[in-house]
Design a protein that fits this description.
- Helices cover about 70% and strands about 5% of the residues.
- By secondary structure, it is mainly alpha-helical.
- The strands form two sheets. The protein has a three-stranded antiparallel beta sheet with strand order 3-2-5, with no helix packed on it.
- A hairpin with a 5-residue loop joins strand 2 and strand 3.
- The termini are far apart.
- The mean pLDDT is about 85.
């Protein structure tokens, strides 16, 4: 982009992040500090920190890109991402904090008394954490390549290095301060440019988002294609394009129809039917299930509730998070809508995830205002990668430290952090062409199909057994993991198989619940003898038990 403000803005965010992390290092001394900040984080601080780590690359970049590309069909992403905290508030937050566990595997052993189940939970925590970390690093590489012209690996490796250093040196205590700061930075980085973009749209006589003739290029544009696609032009001709192909369009030229993209106004504004066999409806319900139930199974979200002083504080934290997250998700939607007007070339290049960072200059021009706002957005995007990656790395490193390395010490946590950060960095360098939000959606599907049933049944049903929990995680979670692997590594699919694999939660979540209940009923003799005392511990307010 040739914007001289971008790199200094990103450097500033990185240095501030490291500075806050080093400040937190002064307060982090014990293993409890590194794992759960000594359970002393107030609801307000914790809510801002949760907002900071939860609003990831998928939220900052991916949601806007998906709305630009597909329209109203994907509005369920921000709705589900936000509404997931309602389920967390109702079913999990307070009992999970009262359990006294440090990690999800800790909870499994505390509730069901099984070391094998603990090991299985460890495997799924690591898989979900790494699956969620990859798109954060991928988004960092995309952003730095887009705004500064650097090679893709530079951004991914920079975020991996900064986050690994921060977490290894300060643990949960340090990243709590970092993530709280970065929530407000991300909100500011989207809200301030959004005001200018709305005013510019007004000044441009409110151009239609979905004109009758379809989107058009507002200025003369040269498009460099990034992904293979089939284009259909208004004269009826079609063309196959490949990465590296250059296409020139004059101002006012209509945007060609792109395979797999909602270019037509009706397709973009109205829910898709995906044929006449209800595949679209199935995919929508599956997405709702994955996002609504997946939040309560995400290890990096759950570990933050262990940092509250008590169960009541955990509930208050969740209420504040609902408000913070709900306000934030109004903004990426606006960017996706305005991207149809000012950055239609992204529909052709395939780089729709870049709409947030490109939109300010595209709409406001290359003057100082446009460049400064673009730099602010780029800084916010980097804050998104850093804060979410910090939370994910902390949760994965905590599990690796206590359950894989078996050390449970500060030095063991630091070694685990290096391991936990290295693997997703290598994966991100080799998986650069995936939609950020779609990969995160798959992580939600795995979480919803494994830890969600475990937590809901473990907290609210006395009859759950270790074999039932293990069977449900293996069958439901394993099916979701299989869908992820086929999506990422397998051949292209079509028809119902493609829908079932791309959005698996609608069948994997009920499968996991059914298997857990059925196997637990058949193995009811394996229910822990102290289940009554455990249930009292989970549900009775601390004041009653003291």
């Amino acid at each position: 982009m040739g914007n001289g403000y971008v790199v200094p803005a990103i450097v500033a965010v990185t240095l501030v992040t490291l500075g806050i992390g080093f400040y937190g290092l002064r307060l982090a001394r014990t293993t409890s500090d590194f794992l759960v900040a000594s359970r002393a984080v107030s609801p307000t601080w914790n809510a801002a920190a949760i907002g900071g780590e939860y609003l990831s690359a998928a939220s900052f970049l991916g949601v806007a890109g998906l709305i630009l590309k597909y329209g109203v069909d994907v509005l369920w992403y921000p709705v589900g991402f936000a509404a997931g905290y309602l389920a967390l508030l109702l079913f999990v937050a307070a009992p999970l904090r009262r359990s006294g566990a440090f990690t999800l595997p800790d909870f499994c052993e505390l509730r069901l008394g099984s070391r094998r189940l603990r090991t299985l939970a460890t495997v799924f925590v690591i898989f979900i954490g790494w699956l969620y970390l990859v798109p954060q690093l991928q988004g960092a590489g995309l952003t730095l390549a887009t705004v500064a012209g650097s090679p893709y690996p530079v951004g991914a490796l920079l975020v991996a290095a900064v986050v690994t250093a921060n977490v290894a040196l300060g643990g949960m205590r340090a990243i709590t301060f970092v993530q709280a700061f970065q929530y407000w930075l991300k909100l500011t980085a989207l809200a301030v440019p959004a005001i200018f973009l709305a005013l510019q749209w007004q000044a441009d006589a409110r151009p239609a988002v979905t004109p009758p003739d379809g989107p058009a290029f507002p200025t003369a544009t040269t498009v460099v294609v990034e992904h293979h696609a089939a284009l259909t032009f208004t004269d009826g001709t079609s063309r196959e394009v490949r990465p590296g192909d250059r296409l020139d369009f004059a101002a006012g030229d209509p945007v060609p129809e792109v395979s797999g993209v909602a270019t037509d106004a009706a397709d973009w504004l109205l829910p898709s039917t995906a044929g006449d066999d209800d595949r679209g409806l199935f995919a929508t319900y599956s997405l709702i299930l994955a996002t609504f139930l997946g939040t309560m199974g995400l290890p990096h979200v759950l570990v933050r509730f262990y940092t509250n002083p008590d169960g009541a504080a955990a509930r208050r934290t969740t209420l504040v998070v609902l408000a913070l997250v709900g306000v934030f998700y109004l903004l990426p939607t606006l960017y996706g809508v305005l991207g149809r007007i000012y950055t239609p070339q992204l529909l052709v290049t395939g780089q729709t995830d870049a709409v947030v960072v490109l939109l300010p200059e595209a709409a406001l021009g290359n003057g100082t205002t446009g460049r400064l706002l673009a730099a602010l957005v780029a800084a916010g995007a980097f804050a998104a990668f850093l804060s979410t990656s910090s939370g994910l790395l902390t949760s994965v490193a905590g599990v690796i430290s206590t359950d894989v390395l078996g050390r449970g010490s500060v030095r063991g946590f630091q070694l685990a952090t290096v391991i936990a950060g290295g693997v997703p960095a290598v994966l991100a360098l080799n998986l650069s062409g995936l939609d950020v939000s779609q990969v995160v959606g798959l992580a939600f599907a795995v979480a919803a199909s494994s830890f969600c049933p475990l937590l809901v049944l473990g907290i609210w049903w006395r009859g759950l057994t270790d074999l039932g929990a293990a069977a449900g995680i293996l069958v439901g979670g394993g099916a979701a993991v299989g869908a992820v692997l086929v999506t990422v590594l397998g051949p292209p699919l079509s028809g119902w198989p493609a829908t079932l694999i791309a959005q698996p939660a609608a069948w994997t979540v009920p499968l996991a619940f059914t298997v857990m209940v059925a196997v637990s009923i058949t193995t009811r003799r394996r229910a822990p003898a102290d289940v009554g005392a455990t249930m009292v511990r989970l549900h009775a307010p601390e004041a009653l038990r003291s």
